[in-house]
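Re-run requested by the PI after the first attempt was lost when the workstation crashed. Everything re-entered from the original request form. Ligand of interest: zinc ion.
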Amino acid sequence: MAKEYFDYKGQLSVAPPSFGGKKKSKQKLQISVNKRDEIINQIRKTKCWNCEQVSYHLTQLEVQDKNRTIMQELDKVLQGNVDEKEADFNNRNAILTQYKIIDDDLNILFKGKVAMQAC
Ligand SMILES: [Zn+2]
């Protein structure tokens, strides 16, 4: 990861890629160049730009990112939102119950039986 960072840092210090042969409006290209410069300036302001421990710090960030993802997954499980199909199933059943096609115990009522015959 640190090597990637240094390659990336190298990319930032070079001039933007040339405009190429395609006929794009110069104004649009200039906007892209400006945005690029703006981003490079922001990146250079980060604490680790000239940090000697960049390799260690980037690893820390990576670990933190992974942990955050795992935490989010765990929270989803704990909140019961993990099974979207189950949620979908429950939503459909709620609608069917509302229209008295099934009852609360998911038994098919008369309207439901008629609907099944019609299919
Ligand atoms: Zn650092």
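Saved to the shared folder this time. Helices lie at 2-13, 26-45, 54-78, 84-98, 110-118.
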